[in-house]
Amino acid sequence: MTNTPPIKAIIIDDEPLARMIVQEYLQTHSNITVLQECNDGFEGIKAIQQHHPDLIFLDIQMPKINGFEMLELVDNPPDVIFTTAFDEYAIKAFEAHAVDYLLKPFSKDRFDKAVRKWLDRYADHQVALAAGASDFASPQQALLDTAAASPAQQQRIVVKTAGKIKIIPLEDIHYLEASDDYVKIHTHNGAFLKNRTMGYFEQVLDPNRFVRTHRSYIINVQQVTRIDPYEKDSHLCVLSSGAQVPVSKSGYMKLKAVLGL
Fold first, then answer.
1. Structural contact between residues 38 and 9, judged by C-beta atoms closer than 8 angstroms
2. Which of 38, 86, 108, 133 could hold 12 in an S-S bridge, CB 3.0 to 4.6 Å?
3. pTM for this predicted structure
């Protein structure tokens, strides 16, 4: 690996001792330079935007937002080696998508193995780019989709708006609406865009609380005040906010089943 160009790295972990161990273990990897240590996901996002690292060492369980939520908010996220205390769901997600992770407490040998694995993949990536390849396959998005279905992430949605991060509890959501390549999340405090699909939210949200009433709409059933007939076999769902949401024939059947009508 002597011909590998200098590699920029960032460590994101709320535990100072854990950051110190990664720094110590990296002493034998002279081609990797740590540009910044971050105490939480908010700092991590800013550091990634500023430094554009090649690699980040990322903890999962952190205050404010967790590691998976942080990655969702980063445009073109860098490669990741995850560091985590035991989390059965996260580890299953890592293994399902062949993403390397370090289970705390990890040894220097285990750390070196993970770094060597990443360096080999990184070298292959550089060769592919030099040969004119425009992209390089990454399991990261599939991993995030899997991780988002974990119980820890099913109680809120994290969005970035006007450069700020907002955490939306599910009970604050009135309905979700398809909006080009985004989903618009309508809440007590206005609407927010999330770079996801309606199919994604239909899969990860609790089907007893959120019903897809139309190909472009998912509603929070707790917000429903009445259902009015509309054209042909369709209906309109009136929410407590006064919003009127279309309900298709199939959506009406699902809504009735959830509401026990």
1. no
2. 38
3. 0.81
